[in-house]
Give the backbone structure.
Amino acid sequence: MSVSAVLLAAGRGDRMGGDGNKVLRMIAGREVLLHAVDAFTGIPDIHELVVVTQPDERNIIADLLGSQHLPIRMVVGGATRRDSALAGVRASTADCVLIHDGARPFPSRALILRLLHALTSRAAVIPILPQTDHVHALQADGRLAPPMPSQSLSMARAQTPQGFHRALILECLEAASLECRDDATAVLLAGRDVSTVPGDPSNIKITFPEDLRLGEAIHALQRRLSH
């Protein structure tokens, strides 16, 4: 099985505050995006990286990545996440793709291998974490919505990377609306099944400034455990 890792690095990250792309912020003296790239190197089935960037940051990120052990394809993203994911998948050349948020610096090797193993028998698979807190729906004015009738469903939080057979996700993203914010959602809306594997609590997404401090703590803990 050949796999392309598609890293989405074209977001602005407005909730971070300040200027610049959040994937270029630093954790332990290294850019968030580089931490994410590191996670995909050294895994035999992954044959290439496809990095999706903003037009004005393409050269910056190309210089940042420098020489890697994997071939790298650079592609410009679009106005929405769906557009950027679609651009990355179109640029990929492998049988399967792992689509990953460049703002998630710590996908573990074990998590990636779980996804790759699942892709040998399933066409779409994502990592999830159980939702342990009680969830309320909010109305537009901030008040809680009335509770929904009880259903035999469990809530879960989706993570990336999300893995797909390339032909399937290409078809589904091309058919998805521009507002589709999740690759698995595009598959579900096409009436296809999506399987799951256990996620990783350390696989955080850098969204707010305080997430950088959490990232520092995770990085320090991982270094201690590896020694």
Summary: The helical segments are 32-40, 58-65, 81-91, 109-119, 166-175, 183-189, 209-226. The chain has one domain: 3-133+154-226.
